[in-house]
Design a protein that fits this description.
single chain, 229 residues, alpha/beta, 5-stranded parallel sheet, 3-stranded antiparallel sheet
């Protein structure tokens, strides 16, 4: 069967990772959550005092990049690969609202993007991969056979993210989550290096009113068209 590269970009909390995991499992493809990679570096910056609400020590973080080792390890019980930072499982730690509040600022740093893009391109050199993020179709895999751009209203995305955090027991308000979503949208679309934009040949999916099943079925149809052509 023909193997393809599936690149999924879009705004935060649009369910990119959920869709990518579904597709990878169904197709038997490798799944890479690039957002987890940026979150892991953000966590590293937080733990080492390189970033806070009003402070960013970019130079120290850049100088430390060579000591940051990232890898994904499949968890059979969960059915997906978890993020490891310097051999430590940080899957839970990188999903907090605190990390979310800083990740877009870390992702603005060109040296961070260069390091991760190189790793991501190496992961996908043999195709049969589903990768989601902000610049997958425009920078990482500009020649991907299928490019998806996911969007939804800020309010819808904030509600989804709030429900997710609330279910985990995190103490956070909907207003805080909405403000975070809006701030991340602005930073992601206005940064100088690889801003979030829809690739010219991408297919836009607005899932504001779609169920996960409806979204999966619609995208799977697009995948099968690409595989069979």
């Amino acid at each position: 069967m023909k193997k393809i590269t599936i690149a999924i970009d879009g705004f935060s909390s649009t369910g990119k990772s959920t869709l990518a995991k579904q597709l990878a499992k169904h197709l038997g493809y490798i799944y890479v959550d690039t957002g987890a990679m940026y979150r892991a570096i953000t966590l590293f910056a937080m733990e080492n005092g390189y970033i806070s609400k009003d402070f960013l020590d970019k130079e120290s973080l850049v100088n430390s990049l060579s000591s940051i080792k990232l890898h994904f390890q499949f968890n059979a019980d969960l059915g997906f690969a978890e993020m490891y930072l310097n051999e430590v499982n940080v899957e839970k730690e990188i999903r907090t609202i605190e990390v979310s509040s800083f990740v877009s600022k870390i992702a603005e740093i060109s040296e961070v993007r260069v390091k991760l893009v190189e790793q991501q391109q190496e992961m996908g050199k043999n195709k049969a991969i589903v990768m989601d993020g902000r610049d997958i179709a425009t920078v990482v895999f500009p020649d991907a056979e299928l490019k998806i751009f996911m969007t939804a209203s800020p309010e819808t995305r904030a509600q989804r993210r709030f429900d997710e955090l609330d279910a985990k027991g995190d103490t956070v308000t909907y207003e805080e989550v909405l403000a975070n979503v809006q701030e991340r949208d602005y930073i992601d679309t206005h940064r100088d290096d690889s801003p979030l934009v829809m690739a010219e040949d991408a297919i836009e999916i607005d899932n504001s009113y779609l169920t996960r099943e409806e979204q999966f079925d619609a995208v799977l149809e697009l995948v099968e068209e690409k595989i069979n052509t």
